Structures are given as structure tokens and as C-alpha cells.
Amino acid sequence: MARSTVALRLDGLLERQWIVPAGESVSSGGRPAVAFAFNPEARIALAADLGAMHARVAVTNLAAGVLAERRTEIAIADGPEKVLGWLVDTFTELVSETGYTFDEVSGAGIGLPGPVSYATGRPVNPPIMPGWDGFDVSGWVGSRLGVRVKVDNDVNIMAIGEHWSTSPDTEHMIFVKIGTGIGSGLITEHRLHRGAQGAAGDIGHVRVPGEGADVVCPCGNSGCLEAIAGGGALAARLRESGLEARHAWDVVRHVRAAEHTAVALVRQAGREVGDVLASLVSFFNPNVIVIGGELADAGEHLLAGVRERVYSRSLPLATADLEVRVSRLGEQVGVIGAAVLVIEDALAPDTVDRSLA
Fold it and tell me: Is the separation of the CB atoms in 47 and 60 below 8 Å?
């Protein structure tokens, strides 16, 4: 391009603060070269990871750096208007805390604990979300905040967050969330694979043979992996054994206290998940399997069960260089992924062109 064309483009990017001067670079002769750098503080992104019993909300810059965040206990079963009303209020408070205005918000990303049609931003028959089926989440939130809203399944945003932040060079990844429910997100050739209708990776409702085959799942079927090895199922079994346990976090608490029953249940849950993943490993051949969600905090007890079945029941060629580990982002993986949904949309060439125009 002509120097005048480049200068005109740079002037527009500077005026909108997408880039900032970074001083003079080393000259190779002729005019001194001037360096510019991307400005991650030019805009902010709103991000929310809504789980079955909790929510984490954050405001980030355009490098997914968290500027403000909040976590609270709130049940997704309370319904869309109550949960999303709280979310809109919390986003408003956090934006104010950062000193930005909504004119500087690039958009909002929201993860939900159930199947989501990414194209419409609506949940589709979510088993643990009564009242949410077909609800226009993106439209409802967007109309109140005045920003573009992206909505996806929570484990998909976790897969995006983990890959983008910790493993950008990994070509194929399976991210497995083991919390109240169980699901997985698939990264293939560095991109999230959603499938034809956005249902790819829903391993929580794969039927598991053997013990537990008659256990009824919230989805209406019986013997689902989630109904046998999910945090909700494990908490119920601990209550049956006389221990206090309402949620997946209580299961982890008992494991950390070296409660034998809890440790045995979590290790067996790891084996059940590993059985399903072994088939996926032979079929999909990932570089890495990442375990996240509340039960990931049970540490090696869960991982040992997963590794035991994956490495023993998958093809040797598929496991030769396979890494199985816990998420390096921990509880923040969901909000980071939700922010990345917004960031990739905000920095797309067409979007930047529109902002300059």
C-alpha cells in the first residue's frame, strides 16, 4: 500500500485508540521508523460464567485481563428473569468500578450450563434450567445494556478460555467440566467445534453401562454419565452415607478432609469419566485433555481415575503424547472464555472497519 494509505489507516486507529505510539524502532536507512502497539485498554468486555448453583462475572480489557470481578451463589433454576436481572445489575456495578462507561463496552459474553443455540443465543431444552428453554438471552440482556451479546454453553467458553490463555499452540484439545453436571468442549485445529446444532461435546448424557444404568438423569434418560459421576450425584450419595453434602463443592471439601467415602466416590467418578473419554481419545486423538469445574479441585484423586481408564483403554498411538491435566486458569476459565468471545468479535476486521467508519 502507498505510505499515504497506511498513514490514513493509522490515523483512524489512533483516533479510536485501537493503537498507541510505541516510540521509534531501529531504522534501516531513510526516514526513522515509528512503532505502534495494540492498545488493550481501548475497550472493555463483559463476561459471565453462570453455573447450576453459582455465577462468576467479570469485566476485562481486550487482552482478557480481569479488571473487576464478582462471584455469588445463585441458582440457575431461579429462572431467566431473576438470574439475568441480577447479571445486568452486576455488570452495571462492575463497569462503574472500572471507571469505564458503556460507550466503551465492546460487548458481553455469557456461558450457560446447558445446550445453547449459538446462532440465536437461546437455550435449547436445558435439563437443569427450568423456564429457560427458548428464552432470548442475548436479546433480553442486550436490550437492557445496549451492547452486543454472545451466548454459549458454559463448557464451550471454558474450552475457549483455556486454549486462548494457556495453550494457544495446542491444535486439538478436549476440555471436560465436572461440576454439578458434566460436559466437554472440543478444540480442533485451534478452533472450537460446536457441531451442526451446537450440541458437540455433550458427554454428560452418554449412557454408561454397568452399575448406575438405572439411575434417572434430569434429561429424562437413565444411566447418563452426569447422573452417575456428576457432582450432584456424588453429593447425593454422600448424604446417603450420613455426610452433609449439598453441592459439588461439599464433595471436594470432604475429599480435602481425607474422608474415605468421598475419596473413593471421586476416584470412581474419574474412572467413569475416563471410560467415556477413552472412546473420544481413540476417535478424536487430542493433544491434551483438560479437567475443569468444581470437582477438578479434588486434585489427583479425580485425575488418577481419569488417567487410569484413558491410558489403559485408548489406542496406544492416540495416548503416546497425550497430556491429562487440570485447568491452569481454575475458576476464572469460564469468564476468560466468555471475554474472548467478545474480544474476537470486537477485533474482527469488519468490526474494526465499522468503528472507523
Answer: yes
Mean pLDDT score of the chain: 93
Give the span between the Cα atoms of 75 and 58, in whole angstroms.
Answer: 18
Spatial separation of the C-alpha atoms in residues 255 and 262, rounded to whole Å? 5
Cell 454397568 sits on residue: 210
For residue 357, what pLDDT is reported? 82
The answer on pLDDT for 27 being more than 70 is no
Domains, the chain, in order of start with CATH, read: 3-38 (no CATH), 44-157+333-356 (3.30.420.40), 171-328 (3.30.420.40)
Share of the chain above pLDDT 90, in %: 83
| Cell numbers at 270, concatenated | 474419574
Query: 3-state class of 108 per DSSP?
Result: strand
Type of residue found at 53 = M
pLDDT tens for each residue of 97-139? 999 999 999 999 999 999 999 999 999 988 889 999 999 999 9
| Across 86-98, average pLDDT | 98
CB neighbour list of residue 211: distance below 8 Å, 6 or more residues apart: 228
C-beta of residue 265 within 8 angstroms of C-beta of residue 234: yes
The C-alpha atoms of residue 75 and residue 88 are separated, in whole angstroms, by 16
Residue 33 has what DSSP assignment?
A: P
Collapsing DSSP to helix, strand or coil, 355 comes out as helix
* Alpha-carbon gap, residue 186 to 43, rounded angstroms: 29
Characterise 129 by phi-psi region: left (phi > 0), alpha (psi -120 to 50), beta (else). beta
- pLDDT per residue as tens digits for the range 207-230: 988 777 788 888 889 999 999 999
The residue with cell 515509528 is: 34
Cα–Cα dist 125/74, whole Å? 20
Q: Where are the beta strands (DSSP E) in 172-281?
A: 172-178, 182-188, 191-193
